[in-house]
Design brief:
About 35% of the residues lie in helices and about 15% in strands. By secondary structure, it is an alpha/beta fold. The protein has one domain: Aminopeptidase (3-Layer(aba) Sandwich).
């Protein structure tokens, strides 16, 4: 597996945070409710083992009233929650014209988690970060081969919380038109069962499987985020894949998320930092469950990786067609 530094060099860019952007993003993050910023295992912040929960505390030396007022102004009240969507509703998201040029359209592929905070651990003790990096690399290759030459792979270093700020700032510095975060799913610890693999103690849960697509209704361009999420979920389904349905179930407790489209598996995850605070449309893909023993093996196969990357490419192409694109705020 490539190191983060090697991957950034290969991708042709480095992360140079803009000072103003860093201040703004940190301020927004600090003002998030504790229960929101630490929203469960699926979150960029705390997905995976308990060691990720021990990231150091971050302090703000001074918070001037003017700065706080500016930050508060950025946190607009959420608009009314959309109803669950069906096929008929999706047509309303598609405008008649498009200005999306694949050659210039810049998709930033965010590799979920970092080498220091690896996210979830699979049933066979493989860190999620390794799955995320491998799949994101394949998606990058396919997008570029299909004409999306400005696609960028974003590999972030550091512990969980600081890396969130770096991701948001880097996406802005790269002038991204679309932010797509690549992840692999797990389950709450209470659902885990013990087993042994290769002589080592491990955990699994075969109870749930499938992909999920997430958006935040607090994203500055939620409508465009949702439009791409719908296309991506539709293409995942077209590949014969099923979406994970457990997020609507009462047994998930605080890990429940509203299902925006019961046909394709698009959920809202409003408090997730990389979806909420990016300045461009943002979508998070949970490609499949690596805590499920059967699905983990499938996620490791070239066939499944090709199916997922093919779905992303098909969604991007459809997004840039006149009937499928929705660029800019409404």
């Amino acid at each position: 597996m490539l190191s983060s530094g090697q991957e950034l060099a290969r991708s042709g860019f480095d992360i140079r945070p803009c000072r103003r952007a860093v201040i703004a993003v940190i301020a927004v993050w600090v003002l998030l409710p504790i229960e929101a910023s630490a929203a469960g295992w699926l979150s960029d912040m705390f997905k995976g083992s308990s060691k990720d929960n021990k990231s150091p505390k971050h302090r703000v030396a001074s918070r001037k009233p003017a700065a706080l007022a500016k930050t508060a102004a950025l946190r607009k009240p959420r608009t009314a929650k959309p109803a669950v969507l069906g096929p008929a509703n999706l047509n309303a998201l598609k405008p008649a014209t498009s200005i999306c040029d694949p050659k210039k359209f810049r998709i930033v592929l965010d590799v979920g988690h970092t080498a220091e905070s690896e996210g979830a651990t699979s049933a066979r003790n493989v860190p999620e970060f390794a799955f995320n990096l491998r799949l994101a690399q394949r998606i990058e290759q396919k997008l570029k081969a299909e004409g999306f030459a400005e696609t960028r792979l974003l590999v972030t270093e550091g512990k969980a919380r600081p890396s969130l700020v770096k991701r948001v700032v880097a996406a802005s510095d790269l002038n991204a038109d679309l932010f797509l975060s690549i992840h692999h799913d797990s389950v709450p610890n209470s659902f885990l069962e013990d087993w042994e693999f290769d002589g080592k103690k491990s955990h699994f849960s075969d109870r749930f499987s499938g992909y999920s697509v997430f958006v935040s209704r607090d994203n500055p361009d939620f409508k465009t985020s949702l439009a791409f999420a719908e296309l991506l979920a539709k293409e995942m389904k077209a590949q014969g894949l099923q979406y994970a349905q457990q997020y609507t179930q009462a047994i998930m407790g605080r890990y429940q998320h509203p299902l925006l489209n019961k046909e394709t598996g698009v959920y809202s995850y409003d408090q997730l930092v990389v979806l909420r605070t990016t300045r461009m449309p943002a979508v998070l893909l949970e490609a499949g469950s690596i805590i499920n023993r059967d699905e983990e093996l499938k996620m490791e196969s070239p066939e499944r990786q090709d199916a997922v990357s093919g779905a992303v490419v098909a969604a991007a192409k459809e997004f840039c067609r006149p009937a499928g694109a929705l660029l800019g705020p409404p």
